[in-house]
Amino acid sequence: MTDISQTPALAPGGGRTMERVRLLLRSRSGLTGLIIVVLLAVLSLVSAFGLLPFDPLAQDPPSRLQPPSAVHWFGTDQFGRDVFSRVAAGVANSALISVVAVAFATVVGTVCGLIAGFYRGFSDGAITAVTNVLFAFPPLLLALSLASVFERNWFTIAVAIAIVYVPIFIRVTRGPVLSLREVEYVKAAKSTGQSRMATMFRHVLPNITSIIIVQVTLSLSWAVLTEASLSFLGLGTPPPAPSLGSMIFEARTLVTIAPWTMIAPGVIVVLLVVGLNLLGDGLRDSLDPRNRGKR
Amino acid sequence: MFRQLLRNSVLRRILAALGTLLGVAIFVFLMLRAIPGDQISSGLGTEAAALTPSQRAALESYYGLDQPLIVQFFSWLGNIFTGNLGFSSRAQTSVLDLTLAALPVTFELAIFSIVIALAIGIPLGMLSASKPDSFRDGVGQVVGLAGLSIPAFLLGTALLAILASSFGFNPNGQAYATLFEDPLLNLQQMLLPSIVLGFGIAAPIMRTTRTAVLEIRSNDFIRTARAKGVPPRRLQVRHVLGNALVPIVTMTGLQFGYLLGGAVVVEQIFSLPGIGRQVLLGIQQKEYALVQSTVLVIALAFVIVNLLTDLLYRVIDPRVRAA
Amino acid sequence: MSTARWASLGALTATGLAFALVVTGCSAPASDPKPSAGAAGGDLVIGVTSDPDTLFPWKATQFQAVNVLQNLYGTLTEFDEDLNVVPGLAESWDVSEDGLTLTFHLREGVTFADGSTFGSEDVKYSLDAIAAEATAAVARSSLASVTAVEATDENTVTLTLSAPDAALPANLAVINMAMLSSDDTEEGLNTTPNGTGPFILDDRKASQSITLAKNVDYWGDTALLDTVEFRVIPDESSIVSAMQSGNVQLAVFDDPLVAQTAEGANVEVATTPQLSYHALQLNATRGDLADVNVRLAMQCAIDRQEVLDTAALGEGEVTGPITSPAYKSDPDARPCPERDLDKAAEYLKKAGKEDGVTIKTIVSQGEYATSVNEAQNLKAQLADAKITLDLEVLESGAFVDRWIAADFDAAVALNGGRPDPDGMYGRYFTSTGNLNKVAGYSSPELDALFAEGRQTADPDKRKDIYAQVSENLEDNAAWIWLFTSYTYTATASTVDGFVPMVNGSLQYLRTTSIK
């Protein structure tokens, strides 16, 4: 069960990127997460550039339901399609949707959070009200309703998921911004006549970057799970584009005669989410010394 | 006087909650109508092509689809205040009755899931925190990570397939029995779904416990108590766990709220007639009143749970009494 | 450490409890009691993926609703297992010399479930209501030729027709033509069905189950089963699990893989061909498709068996337009019985489109299992002939909207079939048919043929006429008919006497018994 409103407790800080990266690489889990994510990213790129051993959509009925072999590394499914290629394409698909969704949510959410926290007043009230309304919806139901509104393709699904996660980013940025407003040098900037928007972007934003980065990795893992769950319900990526969720859905009937059709996408989706979570944890540790070892 | 009232934070919270609910009502109303298709085409499918214009008009009036949107919205909202949540023509029951039947199912599932999650999460969290960065800690972390990463639909599907085909265990294949009708069957039917959901929520609870315990451990008053010679077990429970309760309760309340929102996928896989399934069916069949009212009920439940958690929070920790 | 000890203790207790629950669950098979003697008695559980969306027969189109209603209500005529039209509530009927008068002699002593008697006034009421636009009855167009209905006496009803309609007796056998009591209203019937069928409603739990009990006052042979429960299990593989554990004794599947996993020690699976057909509908009123040569090029570029093999694993048969056994089309009676890319190129040249054409095609997703795979294979095959299928995969709500509005060049569709060819295609391919807009094709020849088919009741003549209709449709490539697939009826070995029907009807529940 995803917990989309758990926000990392971080104190904002600035600079020292190299040291942070070194800390990340030193943390066992962060490193593991990074390796996993990089491997799967490479797999997605391989798929995106069409370098897969088989076409994920090509059917070959004579070779249906074959167990893993040297030719078909993860075996074939009920239509003779190569499971490995489909899984790789599924990862690419999940990656695409999640990245776009989280990018969208990050930009919109951060900007709104900044505006709400910095300008306060009416814009704060309005943005907070919208955030509360969106939060009151069960996330999966909201995503599937939104995804049904427009013709379903990877982009509209990404937007639907993005809308579900925008409130988190708003909440995550608004808090620290509220306290940062009162910090000395921000007040000083205001008094020197710098426009509020410039202050916002120049002084406040860099300080909350670390929080945003952690939230991004966590949101990526939630987005992957949401897309997979939507596809499982038949309301996600429309076929024939392979999706890890729909592959698992189709494998339900096959699990007793051809378990590899469920094991392969299942293991990969878990691996992807684990990698992103570990990376997120590692980032959180490296970006805030106070939380080191206290995950 | 009015301003004084507004300053009262509890009242403010309630007003904000009502405002949120209104926002939810408007949002879901509009969103539903943006989805292509309506109850006529969903009910008749392609046969709807054979309708003559006056047949279609008759059907639209029957389903209340012919009135202007504003009228539809306010008549629905107005009816809610009189307890009429709408009518489902598919089920031929009022939405209120449907919801009253479905809510206890999801509620029961949520409770069992939370219980399992707490039973797994808290001990594991304490185990992890007892010796940070040790093997024990590693085990706890791995279990927590697995819970967060294994999708509920994968776990549920795999468990059901394996248990049903290898051991013939499939109580969910029988008609759903409420706790009062047949307690044994009901518990059996709730077992797998609660485990699947509980496992997923155990992770955040475990992490919260671990963090909270570690933080409190290093606090002065614990060291003082230990120095005073308080036996370690009492220390653990009374002092450490007692203070860690605050964040754990908050986290639990949050998860409970989300569970109420319908563990849709689990209810689908295990054929549990809960709230999540009700909303999903309503969206598929384009039964607007059903979805709108049910979503509103879910949002209301979520808001109430939040308020209660907040209150509980203040009761447990007297330091947190300020607005 | 105490924490560790607690944790393990807690874990052990919990696991123990869970284990106990599982063990008690394992040992309990179907909780339905078995009958003590003979073939009569017993309760049957049928696994279905959703419950009926309506209990009002005149508006029911979803098969879950139709399946249940067929057992609750009666119609004037019925189909037997070979799809011959046989007497139902009407014991017999006569057609006048000129074919303009149809007289039904009703069965006597028939009662509705509430005890009231069934008579000619109920028939008149029902037929008039179905024909009325305000009722929004689905079968209204089947009564297009009926100008007047008269209850000549207690047990006789006379229909006056504007033109002979040989298809009418068959069209009266569908559940959308159910005979309702003149005292009942739609609202009332939606909660409490009141029919003349072999079963009556026993219990209903919305979204969970609907249970029927045998109607002891049924005019025919009383049903053998005591109760039939349609239990809602949304997931098909969960239905299979339920059959394997003995909780469910009968289920109908469309997916051959699911059927395969269901087959086992105590579950038998029967394969039945269906009347419904998969087709690539073409809209001959739009763009390039208006030229018959383009359509014929498409016909020649497609190997139907390949579509069947890749999309449905070969589970089905290649078909022509008419799927009803009595009038079945010869799938090879068309310009291109086999794939012929040369001929396809020739046709395109004749149309002046040697460089190819692009056809915007809509496909539904989620409605039935094979839609997208069919579309994909069609796209691949047509690409070889320089015909590009521009696929739009739509969710069912959006697909239905577009289909109804005929807003497509081509559509990959699964359409229902009917035993009588006029009932099946009259609406689509006559210029006055209410689905002609969707069909996108009509011609004076077809209009004449359909009219002729309605004129004569002679079965041999009609076979000949509809063979011509079929040929005409294929020669003009009005649509591209692909294949019919199978339906799989899984029954527990304790179930006896159930006959799956080609039109998907579950009416033989009345002769089913459980050992």
TrEMBL record, chain A:
InterPro entries given for it? BP-dependent_transpt_permease (IPR050366), MetI-like (IPR000515), MetI-like_sf (IPR035906), OppC_N (IPR025966)
Localization in the cell: Cell membrane
Cross-referenced PROSITE patterns: ABC_TM1 (PS50928)
Q: Give the stretches traversing the membrane.
A: 30-52, 95-119, 126-148, 154-172, 204-225, 257-280
Primary location class: membrane
An example of a Gene Ontology BP annotation on this entry? transmembrane transport
Q: Which residues form the ABC transmembrane type-1 domain?
A: 91-280
Q: Which CDD domains match?
A: TM_PBP2
For this record, the Gene Ontology CC terms, alphabetical, are:
plasma membrane
Note the topology in the membrane. Multi-pass membrane protein
The entry's keywords: Cell membrane, Membrane, Transmembrane, Transmembrane helix, Transport
Listed Pfam families: BPD_transp_1, OppC_N
Q: Which family does it belong to?
A: Belongs to the binding-protein-dependent transport system permease family.
Protein name, per record = Glutathione ABC transporter permease GsiD
Record lineage: Bacteria, Bacillati, Actinomycetota, Actinomycetes, Micrococcales
